[in-house]
From TrEMBL:
Keywords associated with the record: Cytoplasm, Nucleus, Repeat, tRNA processing, WD repeat
Identification of the protein by name: Elongator complex protein 2
WD repeat ranges, renumbered to this chain: 18-64, 163-199, 342-372, 565-596, 620-651
Family to which the UniProt record says this protein belongs: Belongs to the WD repeat ELP2 family.
Subcellular location(s) per record: Cytoplasm; Nucleus
Gene Ontology cellular-component terms listed: cytoplasm; elongator holoenzyme complex; nucleus
Keyword Acetylation (UniProt): no
Length: 668
């Protein structure tokens, strides 16, 4: 996303969710006002080939105009106001190898011009008005390593210059207006940034001969409406060690009744760093002022960045969908510190489970992670908000299901045949108490006494290994005697947190140790459930035959398999224990459900056993399509099933009797 909203207040929350695109949103951009006032319009482009203009007037956000015409995914957008807010000029680049210019007026949009680049692609576009002439100028950067400049004359785009210098794809562009001149910043996969200056010149300057006595940068001169403009290279900024994906100027601010553009430039790179650049006082040489980013972890760097209007905050977004915030410390002599941001899954959420006490929530998703969220209660009394404070599992397969077993143990299943059991380390319990305000003594009483400090994942491994206090001391000695920092990147470092951790700590220092693997299923895991007594875990996998559609029961005390419940012929889609732990409900792709009864414990076999209590079949089934989900009423007398046939059925009452065949629960 190209332009995330930055709030200067302490509270950071989701303000609005804009629904309209039917594919991934690739770019967003605010339409900035010429007077520096609050933005009202937002432009977005997506993989659904659509371009939308959003209006944020009257404290509500609505989709006002749709620009339809691209035949490929829209990858970059920008927009400027023309004479007034009634006319908006929008530029868009798409994977159909075209750049389109749109005029939005009222509720309609007109495509003014389309520029085709043949087999090439433009990766970014930036629009601005030429100083003194109000003529729009468009910059495009793409896979030909050039920056192309176009001006809008008589309703059509005319190419006026092609700036060479980059040696790889140009990934980002942005204009800035400084004292009746324009500065264009460009970034590339060659790891460099270039700053170009566009200024007005006398018409005769373009043809004057250089006597060779003065060293001057090469200038590209063009004329627009009897005015001449020259473009020259201002600076080349080298500091990144990998592709540079994003470049943005600090937003202009109002000083002394006029709009002032600070000369501060922000760049984000795949080398996991964000750099703030500015010219030195006196010499004017562009130098690195601040460098922030990540150290270690398994991330792939930053895709984009933005700077706060006051220049005291930096926001970046990374490959894994995470936001990163850094704020400048007041009176800190240029020192920056990580800030608290909103985080979450960057792919489909597949399952979730509540802590039995209701104090936190665990979720798993197709982004191959398990995440733990809890309310953060700041000590300064500000508003409580939900945040991710731990990432217990970072896997190599898409996660599918999850079940809590007590407060600090959970079982998870992914697109593999193995179930994995995790238990919270001591470092998490202590940090959870500080962040949520829960009493630490109570939390420790509900967990094991010999908890490890944390967990780490070996290189090329999928299992989180427990790290104990003694391991930390040994590891410190190994790191001091080792010249390479490779081991430090993946090893656990204990944290003392009073606020939600940043992304790099979530990736490395909040893992939970894996204590057990459960084998037995023949295909990828699909669903999990645990009873309220925390004694039994039920699991099922994907199945196209009856022999694989069994429900397996596991003892949470020994983690051995107790039973394999066979009834269904296709995948069991969800499992649910009744609140009193006496019944187990299973629903399936075969359009039926089955109800299993817990047998009373016997002196010879203390482990719980389940037997088939009742079920539906082809004759008694009410649902005509796959049954997706099920759940119980709090009194364990009724349960509900929902199906693709658009029906939600409530069944009951479930009256357990010691003898005789029970009547099947009837739909209510």
């Amino acid at each position: 996303m190209a332009a995330p909203v930055m709030q200067t207040c302490h509270e950071r929350r989701v303000d609005s969710v804009l629904n309209g695109h039917r594919g991934r949103v690739n770019s967003v951009q605010w339409v900035h006002r010429q007077d520096g006032g609050p933005e009202r319009h937002l432009v977005s482009g997506g993989s659904d080939h659509a371009l939308y203009l959003w209006d944020t007037q009257r404290d509500a956000v609505r989709r006002s105009v749709a620009c339809v015409g691209h035949s490929g995914a829209v990858c970059a957008v920008d927009a400027v106001y023309l004479e007034d807010d009634a006319q908006i000029l929008v530029a868009s680049a798409a994977s159909d190898s075209t750049v389109r210019l749109w005029l939005v007026q009222g509720a309609g949009a007109q495509c003014l011009h389309t520029v085709s680049f043949g087999n090439g692609f433009m990766m970014d576009v930036s629009l601005v008005l030429l100083p003194g002439s109000r003529v729009p100028i468009l910059a495009c950067g793409g896979d030909d390593s050039r920056v192309h400049l176009y001006v809008l004359l008589s309703g059509a785009l005319t190419k006026v210059a092609s700036l060479q210098g980059h040696e790889d794809w140009v990934r980002g562009l942005e204009w800035a207006s400084v004292d009746q001149e324009l500065l264009l910043a460009s970034c590339s996969q060659d790891g460099l940034l270039r700053v170009w200056r566009l200024r007005g010149v006398a018409v005769s300057d373009g043809g004057s001969e250089d006597d060779g006595s003065v060293i001057r940068m090469k200038e590209d001169v063009f004329e627009v409406k009897e005015r001449a403009f020259a473009v020259s290279l201002e600076a080349v900024l080298a500091g990144h060690e990998n592709w540079v994906y994003g470049v943005h100027w600090q937003p202009p601010r109002r000083e002394g009744g006029r709009l002032h553009q600070p000369l501060s430039l922000l760049s984000a790179s795949m080398d996991k760093t964000v750099i703030l650049w500015a010219p030195e006082e006196g010499s004017g040489v562009w130098v690195e002022q601040v460098r922030v980013g990540e150290v270690g972890g398994n991330t792939l760097g930053f895709y984009g960045c933005q700077m706060g209007p006051d220049g005291a905050s930096i926001l970046a977004h990374a490959f894994h969908g995470a936001l990163h915030l850094w704020t400048k410390r007041p009176g800190g002599e240029g020192k920056w510190s990580p800030g608290v941001v909103i985080s979450g899954h960057f792919n489909a959420v597949q399952d979730l489970s509540w802590d039995p006490e209701g104090e936190f929530l665990l979720s798993v998703g197709s982004d191959q992670t398990t995440r733990l969220l809890t309310p953060w209660r700041p000590r300064d009394g500000t508003q409580t908000s939900w945040h991710e404070i731990s990432r217990p599992q970072i896997h190599g397969y898409d996660m599918q299901c999850l079940a809590m077993v007590g407060r600090f143990t959970f079982v998870s299943g992914a697109d593999e045949k193995v179930l994995r059991v995790f238990r919270a380390p001591r470092n998490f319990v202590e940090n959870f108490a500080r962040i949520s305000g829960a009493p630490l003594d109570k939390l420790l009483a509900s967990s094991d006494t010999d908890l490890p400090e944390g967990a780490s994942t070996p290189a090329l491994g999928l299992s989180n290994k427990a790290v104990f206090q003694g391991d930390l001391a040994v590891k410190v000695q190994e790191q001091l005697s080792c010249d390479s920092a490779q081991n430090q990147e993946t090893f656990f470092n204990p944290l003392k947190l009073s606020e939600p951790p940043p992304e790099d700590h979530l990736l490395q220092n909040t893992l939970w140790p894996e204590i057990q693997k459960l084998y037995g299923h023949g295909f990828e895991m699909y669903c999990l459930a645990s009873d309220s007594l925390n004694t039994v875990v039920a699991s099922a996998c994907k199945a196209s035959k009856a022999e694989y559609a069994t429900v397996m029961l596991w003892s949470s005390a020994s983690w051995r398999q107790l039973q394999a419940l066979a009834f269904h012929t296709l995948t069991v889609t969800q499992l649910a224990f009744s609140p009193d732990a006496t019944l187990l409900l299973a629903v399936s792709r075969d359009r039926t459900w089955s109800l299993w009864r817990r047998s009373p414990p016997s002196p010879g076999d203390p482990e719980p056993q389940f037997s088939l209590y009742t079920h539906t079949d082809k004759d008694s089934a009410v649902h005509t399509r796959i049954i997706w989900s099920c759940d119980w009423s709090p009194d364990s007398r009724y349960f509900a099933t929902s199906s693709r046939d658009k029906k939600v059925m409530v069944w009951g009452p479930c009256a357990l009797k010691d003898s005789g065949k029970p009547p099947p629960p009837a739909p209510q």
